[in-house]
């Protein structure tokens, strides 16, 4: 006697096809032609994710070694964890850096030519962006780490100094390139080197209200945790997507590097720095400097404060309204030829 007979009529059911690949256009070009396809970017690992993976899967690795490799490679577990003890693999990073040339200026992340040197960062979920449908869709190119950016800048300044200046001082920004990361690194080095800088208050109705500020030459302190920020020292976050600022001299100065005319301030980032800026009862002025190239300095306008869902918020915490004042600070890229590594 025959058992149960199952009849499966042909039918179509809705399904999602997911293609996981390197961000190389040649791989996903045809797939991207289909209707309603969309592209999302997978972020590199955070330090917390690397630390958790080490404890569970690679407990034999010294945490200090893993942290050191994270500071070099960024959040790439293959080299920070899996190949942590593999010397030939570890040497690959310096080999990639040594190959950097002017082609880096036009790199947009669509090949693997610089995948060890340049990482794609994206808009991961955070309290500032609650619309889950928009997560992981933006692409921002950043150097893999502070170690990499310093090594690359040293190489470029030594061999392609004039090309670097022309690239950074071009009137029209090349969207999607590494220009933003290059400008940020140059600006950091100029500020750390110290000197006299031109600045103006963004509340002023006239661009002729220009003053100068003198910054001392000092070493840069990199911080992983906000508790590591020291007063009166130039501190910059190791985290590439640190919210709101690129550097801080606590408790009176914040620095945000940008070559774009629109760069809103995220309130959540300021809240995280509140205690280092004097706490909620602070009464002193906190100078929020937008560090700008010369061609943007005079036209740059006062920026909005953003809160949940990236919407403008006029009801800021009282201490922000009371203490934080916005300024434009000019970086003269003509002086890039005089920058020395500090």
Automatic annotation (TrEMBL):
InterPro entries: Crinkler_effector (IPR052980). This is 6323_t:CDS:1.
